[in-house]
From TrEMBL:
Top-level taxon: Eukaryota
Keywords of the record: Coiled coil
Ranges in coiled-coil conformation: 3-30
Protein name, entry field: Uncharacterized protein
């Protein structure tokens, strides 16, 4: 009787080990998937940051041009300066 109980306990433990291994493999797959998604996000963030750098250069040139022309030009210059600030913040992602 004790031998059968021990055998049953061993079988239960084997089943539990299989369940844990399956769960572990599922976790590994999810981690790999998240790593891939994070990698894609980093690539996109770098592209946006690079584009912001380009916009900042253009904004500087336009800002100088329009700042002196009118109140609308000054508003535009302010918006262009904001783009420049965003590009500076984006540099850390390059």
């Amino acid at each position: 009787m004790e031998l059968r109980a021990s055998f049953r306990k061993i079988e239960e433990m084997k089943k539990r080990i299989e369940e844990l291994e399956t769960s572990f493999q599922n976790c590994e797959i999810r981690i790999e998937s998240r790593d891939h998604i994070m990698g894609e996000a980093v690539v996109q963030i770098r592209k946006v940051a690079d584009h912001l750098q380009t916009l900042a250069v253009q904004a500087d040139m336009l800002s100088m041009k329009y700042e002196l022309e009118s109140s609308r030009g000054q508003e535009l210059a302010l918006l262009l300066r904001k783009i420049r600030v965003l590009s500076i913040r984006a540099k850390s992602y390059l």
